[in-house]
Amino acid sequence: MRRFWLSQARLPQGWADQVEIRVDAAGIIRQLTPNARPAADAVQLHGPVLPGIPNLHSHAFQRAMAGLAERAGPGDDSFWTWRETMYRFALRLGPEDVQAIAAQLYAEMLQQGYTAVAEFHYVHHQPDGSRYDDPAELSWRVLAAAEATGIGLTHLPVLYAHGGFGPKPAGERQRRFLHDAKGYAALLEKLRPAFRTGGSPLRRLGIAPHSLRAVSGPLLAEALALTGADWPVHIHIAEQTAEVDDCLAHNGQRPVQWLLDHAPVDRHWCLVHATHIDAAETAALARSGAVAGLCPTTEANLGDGLFPAIDYLAQGGQFGIGSDSHISIDWREELRLLEYGQRLARRGRTLLAQGPGGSTGQRLFDAAMAGGAQALNQPMGAIAIGRRADLVLLDGTAPMLAGHGAESLLDALIFSGQPNPVRAVYVGGRQVVAEGRHVQAENIAAAYRAALTRLTA
C-alpha cells in the first residue's frame, strides 16, 4: 500500500482535515482515516484536495479547430454551418494528428483537474472513407494518447450510419464516420481485449450511437445487443430544434420521448445535450436514472439553447459535464455557465442551490461528480474507499481562495474568476501534474505543434 496524507480533503460527507489514505497497486483507495498524523513514508499534499473531475463528453480532434469557426459567413450562422467547418477539418486528419491532438487535449484536461474523459470517437476511417487495415487504427491512437498522459479513458466508438431521419443517405463529408452493423461489431470485437474486465482501472469501453438522425431504431437495437452488462451508452439527442422537428415528422414523437419509449434507457445511459426537451420529457428523463450530459460552453458557442436544469434537478435528475468541442477546458467554467444560463433565463440568482442556505457551488460540484462518474463507469467521483486515488491539489495560497473556509471554498473556486489554482494532480495515485503543468507537457506540446504545422501547410 502507498500512503497519502491530505491536509484538507473534500470527502463525500464534506471537508475533512488531516486525511490519510492508503492506495493499492491498482490505484484504488483501500483505507481512509481522518485526523491522522502524517506517516514518514506518506506523500504529503498541503492545501485543499478535491477528487478528480469526470469529463463525460469529448471530441478530441475538435480541440485543434477551436477558433476556426468564428468568422461570420454570408448567411445565418448556426450549428449546421459550424458542422460544415468541422467536416472539412476532420477530412485532413491523419493517425499521427489524431494522437498528437488528443494527447495535448488530455494534458490540458489534467492540468485543470479532469482525471478521466469519455471520448465520443467518430472519426474511424481514412480521408477517402476506406477502412484502415486495422479498423481500430484511430481508436488505438486515442488510447495511446490517454496512456501517454495518464488520464482515465472511457472509450465510446461511435455508430454513425445515416445522414438524417428516414433514413437519409449520409453525405460525402461524413464518409470517415460511417459503419453498418457488421462493421461496427467488428470494431468493438477488435477493441474488447484492450478493455477487458479485470484490466486497467483507468479504461472502460462503451458504445455511442451518434444520434437518432444517424442511427435508425432497428440499428440502435442491433448495437445495444453488442454491449456488455455494464457498458455505458452515450447518445447525442435533442441538441437542435431542427432535430426535434424532424423526429416529430418522421417518428411522431420528440427525440427524448421516442428514445425513452423504444430503448432500455437506465443508469448506464448518458443523453448528451438533451437541450430541447418539454416538461414531460424532463420528468421522464429524471425518472429514468440516466445522466444528462451537459456541455454549457460548447452549447453556448454553437447557440444551441439552455437545458431546463432547474426543473430537471428539482425532480431528482442527474447530470454531468463535458467539454465537448473544447473551446474551453475548464470544469469550473462549465458549472458557472450552467448556473448563469439559468439566471439569465429566469432573472434570478442561486437558482441551482438546494433551497435557503444551500451552496450553489457545492451542489453543482457534488452533482457533476456523481453523474460524471456514473456516465463514465469509472471508480471515481469521490475520495472514498473503493474509488480510484484521483487527487487534485489546489494552491491554498491562491488569492481567489483567501478568506474562504469549508462553507464557501467551492463557491469561491467556481464563481470567483479564471486563474487556475490546480498545483498537482494524481490519477490512481500516480502524479501526472506538478507545479501546475503536466509532467510531459513540453514533449506533448512539441508533437501537437508539429501536427498543426502539417495540417496548415
Report on the architecture of this protein.
Helices cover 35% and strands 21% of the residues. The chain has helices at 79-90, 95-112, 137-149, 181-191, 217-224, 241-251, 255-262, 279-288, 296-301, 309-314, 331-346, 360-376, 409-415, 441-456, and strands at 2-11, 14-23, 29-33, 43-51, 53-58, 114-121, 152-159, 203-205, 208-209, 233-237, 269-273, 291-294, 318-321, 391-394, 422-427, 430-434, 437-438. It has an 8-stranded mixed beta sheet, with helices on one face. Strands 5, 6, 7, 8 and 9 form a 5-stranded parallel beta sheet that branches. Helix 12 (360-376) crosses helix 13 (409-415). The longest helix is centred in the N-terminal third of the chain and has 18 residues, at 95-112. The termini are far apart.
Can you describe this structure in just a few lines?
Helices cover 35% and strands 21% of the residues. The chain is α/β, with parallel strands linked by helices.
Low-confidence stretches: none
Q: Could you tell me the radius of gyration in angstroms? A: 21 Å
**Assembly state of the chains shown:** single chain
Q: Order of strands across the biggest sheet?
A: 3-2-1-4-14-15-16-17
> What is the CATH homology-level superfamily of the largest domain?
Metal-dependent hydrolases
